[in-house]
Amino acid sequence: MDMQTIRELQAYGFFFFTVFLVLILYGYCYHLYKSEKTGRRNYEKYSNLALDDDPSSNVLEKKQE
């Protein structure tokens, strides 16, 4: 196997891995959108967590057992 073939395989691997990661990202975004649209989760509460991180703050969700 010569160096040119190895570089081509690296390029194809990089391309397909990038496409795979983009599909994972879009799938995750769709999951977030669908969860919020159906009312299972409200992710806006979680976005406020970064601003309101005081130890005396209210708990966002109770732990399900």
From TrEMBL:
- Transmembrane annotation, as ranges: 12-33
Q: Which InterPro entries match?
A: Cbb3-typ_cyt_oxidase_comp (IPR008621), Cyt_c_oxidase_cbb3_CcoQ (IPR014107)
Q: Which Pfam families match?
A: FixQ
List UniProt keywords, sorted A-Z. Answer: Membrane, Transmembrane, Transmembrane helix
Q: Which domain of life is it from?
A: Bacteria
User: What protein am I looking at?
Assistant: Cytochrome c oxidase, cbb3-type, CcoQ subunit
- Phylogenetic placement of the source organism: Bacteria, Pseudomonadati, Campylobacterota, Epsilonproteobacteria, Campylobacterales
